[in-house]
Model the fold of this input.
Amino acid sequence: MAAASARALAAAVSALLAAAVLLASPSPVAAEEGCTRRPVVFAFGDSNTDTGGTAAALGSYLPLPEGRTHFRRSTGRLCDGRLVIDYLCESLNMSYLSPYMEALGSDFGNGANFAIAGSGTMPRDRPFALHVQVQQFVHFKQRSLQLISHGEKAPVDAEGFRNALYLIDIGQNDLSAAFSSGLTYDHVVHHRIPAMLSEIQDAITLFYDGAKNFWVHGTGPLGCLPQKLAELRNDDDGGDLDDSGCLRTLNNASHEFNDQLSSVCHKLTSQLKGSTIVYTDVLSIKYDLVANHSGYGFEEPLMACCGYGGPPYNYNANVSCLDPGYRVCEDGGKFVSWDGVHYTDAANAVVAAKILAAEFSTPNVPFGYFCKT
Done:
């Protein structure tokens, strides 16, 4: 009875949160119409999309307060609850994506999640860079089709792979590492970013051999992360802060990455005949969440809920969330940032609602377009 009550309460909270998102959005978020065929999604990326792959791969355990919202247990997500990908799956009434690396309890009938925390595009052969994730997918696909050819069952068949959605959300770690290593802004923009985009382009091109639906997320505002802002505080230099309290240089680099990524998607759309490649401007969505946080019901746009150090950012590189001595806020729903790098369940709900509205996507197609005939 207590479990049923908890589930009912969670459902009610989710409904209220969704309603709040609708009211806060400049345009109504249209509900997804039902799929006419089974939705299949394959996701690739970093911790923004990792639903437990790293925990499974490394045998690590992320105890509460990770997962304290909605799941109320450890799930391997670096969040107090759901990620954007979880909300997108909910919009299609499909199960959450199982991590490819999880050996037990996985259900790949609706696809698989190859995203791994800490991943980037380079070096391409280092676990678990985008290229490695792509190779894991190739193995998954080949093995599935092989089983079917032998008269055995597999979670996804050739038609499923062909009609599936291939979602890519990666680049944040590459940009972060580039600036942390001391590379100049010009070098990052003119050399590092093109190399990153080459990897993403190669991935889409490879998927195209037997696929046609792609959903690509731009990176978020790197300069609004408490992690980066805390580094600035240590340097005692506030001249790079914009009106929202974010770092201009890092956000400019994020914009450059996204502009070039959008161009790559546009180019590939014309080259890969019959494909649909949707680019979503996640940076604009997330920056608006910070700049106009009160309109979405948030009180702390730049301070981590889980961390150490207190205001203004509650982030310390030596005492991160779950480290000895960390402190966690009582209500993550008032915070945009969960741990200084990742967003809270409440913030991810707003981001997902904006994505589902298609206002920030090019072309402007609904997220569930791929599972409708």
About this structure: Residues 186 and 192 are 9 Å apart (CA to CA). The longest helix spans residues 248-271. The chain has eleven helices and ten strands.
